[in-house]
Batch of 2 targets.
Target 1
Amino acid sequence: MDWLAIFNLALGELISPLTAAYILCAIGLAVHFGFTGLMNFGQAAFAAVGAYGMAIGILTFGLPTAVAILFGMACAVIFALVLGIPTLRLRADYLAIVTIAAAEIFRYLMLTSGFAGVTGGSAGLSAFNEEFRALNPFPDGEYGFGPFTFREEELWMRIVGWSAVVLAALFVMFVMRSPWGRVLRGIREDEDAVRSLGKNVFAYKLQALIIGGVIAALGGMVFVLNLSNVQPASWGTNFTFMIWTVLLLGGAATILGPIVGGMLFFLLLTLTQSIIGGLVDVGVINFLSPPQVGQVRFLIIGLALMALVIFRPQGIFGNKKEMQFNG
Amino acid sequence: MANNISVGAAAPGCKKVDPILVADNVTRQFGGLTAVDVAHLEIPRGQITALIGPNGAGKTTLFNLLTGFDKPNTGTWIYDGKNLAGVPSYKVARLGMVRTFQLTKALSLLTVIDNMRLGAQDQPGENFLRSFLKPLWVKYENQITAKADDLLKRFKLDAKREDYAAALSGGQRKLLEMARALMSDPKLVMLDEPMAGVNPALTQSLLEHIKDLKKNGTTVLFVEHDMHMVRHISDWVVVMAEGKIVAEGPPAVVMKDQAVIDAYLGAHADTDLGTVAIKIVKDKK
């Protein structure tokens, strides 16, 4: 086993665009769940709406990439309104059921062959990121050092993805420290109490759903710009649950939590994959076949998440007094 | 009997000299049960009114209806000249009619001072777009923080300022909820069982706070089972039973109404339960 290669691979994951994409979605979920108490189990749909919105904006409407990104964000706002207006009056647990259903409905709509002319159906969409690549200001070559060595387009993707993460984190930190954020945290604790103090709770919940959704839409865009294609299969419920894992790992009502949680999650995911895979290859583990390794690592991650919720419900950065996973 | 609150003699549904809240024909049914059936009720302005009655009389339901937390089957009510039927609860609160809850709703995982700041209305920073422009709201934030600190001092919660509300005792949470309701300088405060679960040492200070409210011109309407409190601080008592108003009047008069005492307050309303037990034991001998 090549331990150096394993660690290099794992360290590279720390700042991969995929990690950035998940972190963005988790920051959005922190706005929903951590700060406002909305049990959104359909975060994959917001990411998908952003990704499809941008791709369709470029391919179908011929928009420039920057405008298409704004278009994708606008799509997420509309999705939040459509989802939120009928459902935000529901209690937290019902909202969880409705959001998970809404996410599946959106995924199936993208999958159906009826809209394949626009959405690409089951094959999805590709070839929408030429302009994005052309915008790359870095000349050809290799940049960085050690595990963080990237070709010019890899570097460009990372800079864009992580800039989005930093901007989203600063934005959320800023608004949550304002009186507006204080109302959201009040709603998380008891919405009737906040209502009795003269706040329009429904409007605040809708605003929170929109803001968290738009941040997740940016995550979806980073996700597909990195892969160079949008496929309906990416946005299943497992996408949502990985976002929840990232959020709970770091701490739901924190800003730094989703970021460090995301980095740690992908570090562990890669490490377990490589180490178990390596042990299978050299014959130390002889009861697993190589294709089973991918499943086993999720099994280990699942156990880790259970242990986390039981023993450290506030996450790594959470203040146990302020926020726990208690729905 | 004449008094200076009602027009003419006190009777269920009687007219008041200066009502702040007038409710007409308010009914609320839960399935086959009529929880509230109030033909006419006027709450006198600037006075402390107690709403009493046995469990299940519909007191809390009436509170919920009047403050927009529940919708009635029929009825209208006019608060300070405005018809409030169908007005959502947050707008009711903005009009200066602020309530507390029977089961205290302290915002547990917010600090005490943040709980208080949330009680203030018209904070421009609570608007999402304006929340970005700190200069627009920081001055008001300082004002409401000063006011909150002042209220916390009055309610003897200033030592707990930075603690999470979850760390307070049940009685302190009641105090916090009441102090928070006062942040918006309400015209009508509706307290749902302010004494429930409060220890006797705190009771006295709560009573003083409620009397202070009256001194400052605030109208108080409260639901309470504690007859000591009703007798000592209320100017007017409204008795509800089975959803209806069955008696009204100054406390001294209503309390003496033997029918009210026996039917709605229990035959031993005046006596400490400990002495009742002793008396029963003695009677047996």
Note: The first helix of chain B runs from residue 59 to 66.
Target 2
Amino acid sequence: MSTTTQARRNTRPQDSSVLHTYETLIVGAGFAGLGSAIRLRQAGIRDIVILERGNAVGGTWRDNQYPGAACDIPSNLYSYSFAQNPDWSRAYSGSREILSYVEGLVRQYELAPLIRFGQDVIELSFDKASRRWLAKTAVGQTYGARTVVMAQGPLSNASFPDMPGIGSYEGHKIHSARWDHGYDFAGKRVAVIGTGASAIQIIPELVKQAGFVKVFQRTPGWVLPRPDYGTPNWMRALFRRAPAAQSALRQALYTAHESMATGLIWRTPASRLLEQVASLHLHSQVPDAWMRRQLTPDYRIGCKRVLVSNDYYPALRQPNAKLITWPIATLSPRGIRTVEGVEHQADCIVFATGFDVSKTGTPFPIHGLGGRLLSEDWRHGAQAYRSVSVAGYPNLFFTFGPNSGPGHNSALVYMESQIDYIVQGVRLVIEQDLKWLDVHEGAQQRYNAAIQRRLAGTNWNSGCKSWYLTEDGFNSSMYPGFATQYRLQMRRLPRGDYSLVR
Amino acid sequence: MQLDLDRMRDKIKASQWALADIDWDAPGRELVTNDPDLYPKLKAFMADLMWIEHVGARGFAAMAKKAPNDTLREIYTYFHAEEQRHANAEMALMQRWGMLDGEGLPEPNINIRLVVEWLDAYADDMPLSVLGSVIPMLEIALDGALCKFLLETVKDPICHAAFEKINADEARHLGVDFHVLEMLGHSPVYRQTLQMAGKLIDPRLLIGILAYLPLLNRMRDNLVELGLKEERLYEAIRKYRRVGGTPGGLRNPWFQLISRHGGWMVNRRNRLYHVPVDALVRLTGKIPPRLLPQIPSWVHELTWKPTA
């Protein structure tokens, strides 16, 4: 450690007493952080700072720029209702277009002055005496704020999986969430590990570019067809002239996705129907019975994330592609050795192995009242009140907190209602000049007992292993209900369930 | 035999090997190729052995779908691949000894073809109790009789190196097989018997039995031709009875049926059994290959090449 850093660390506590105290500090300049800033400003909160660890906005959509990256939810629904875009080029836009939309939000709402780039928060602690949160960043700076919005994103961290022999592999390694745009796939032998939501978007693009693509699958997913289309010009013109028409389409898409909940979240005749749609989709695209067997899941639809694609199965059938379902024994210097004894040699391995989703810990230490540590409180699974507040951590608000994930509808619909709830909380603290706003422990426990009771009957908890669950099978990720139910519970912050300390 | 399945799974994962671990071009092949007496018989034997491993692999694939818990499902998924590895390694030996015509698969005999067709069509519909009781019988025959016999007959050091690895895998397979055999016997005997009776009139299973019996007889004939003492097969059946004859195993009517059937099969003097089954062997030999459906695509996954 250099002496300057040492000196800075030693002096920080003194520094913090002279810090500017923002009304709100937002961690992350992705969809959630920027949306929060927009709504907070509209509600009269002006003194905001956004700490972003990267050098650009967009979060997950900035990072996930692999070939074929797109959203599984139609763009007209995967956008903010208060900032609709009449110019989406397709029903399901690609990640570049989504990123442009996010960048457009920054311009339209003049958010740039609020953002501090290169500020990776490494610790957050509540200072009771000065009744504010102190955020330390990796470059040694400290920010103070009355309230904090956690918008660091659930899918923001990705790393190579801990597979045997991964260190010995001498070829090129690429993680789907950190794409290497400089690598030329032409003529290369490429291995893709993983067949989740990212993989099934990457694979069709790689099959077009690479010499040969081997896809290593552990568990197949249910794949539904994607009703994609290029937006006709008249539609864009209509949306520009009559935004109400776009709102109507949004509402229709919302309702259609809501109806999917009946089959995806709970086991109902609709689940069977969706499974049959997926099976038909598979049958129509894969003629070989053994390959269909390899691609057919043996768990209920909805238990793991449902995949949506029209070109994944056809890509696997191309002469330069092969699906491999043998378990991986180890990586070797030249490729992947599977248990059937064969070394599948590859010039490049693409790891589409997902994200490091934190279900028990926190992205950095968060100290609440009395020095309590959130990762300790969440040791057995994360819990919050209405997914936003955690008892003992006053004036701190989570976006995409525990049990806020949808399995059937747009994450942005959920996010928007979280943000509007958070705005109520922040306004309460600022306008009433509260020392703190802290949810009652009892209210949080009652809320979670009910959530867990309801989760027990869902497809997520029906026995498969998924990233929604902790190692012990505890579900701290998903919200067991319709988006409409979630929005209703988020409409009003119930003051009775919080202590308002003046 | 009670096992800690989680530990077994970890052990399986830690004991992986690949075809590339063996030097298939090392000296010693002439110990086989220069023996004109042994060569044609060994070629037929290796083809049978390789196919039976492959058939076993497909059996494990079906069992993975029926496994009562995640650990056992994962173990069976590994076993499926490991049996395939054995078939691949045996093919690599055949390649070493110049027994493969071109790069293709050894020609399966008609009884193998019929069993493959049956597995492809119905194995996934069979309950764990049937597959879980038959598989240990086949594996113990493979492990106890065939492989030992092969190693006594063939002096090629690479053959020994390969089978050392194969046998180590098979020992783990047998451990799990007999654990499951015991586990399967734990429900009330009357219920198991009723379920078995119900299954035995399932035409899909009957077709399977009709495909399976002549395969065993044909293979036994091939083995005896190569010089295998029938006593070896008796030993294997006795071992199946001894190891499987735990309290749970004895309560499993499939175990009872299969161990009894094993006795009939190895006893050449049991005419009541062998006259009709040998007739079946001859009858199936008359089936024109063009009547058989196309070989299922999973068969084409077999390869003798260590790298791909």
Note: The longest helix of chain A spans residues 243-264.
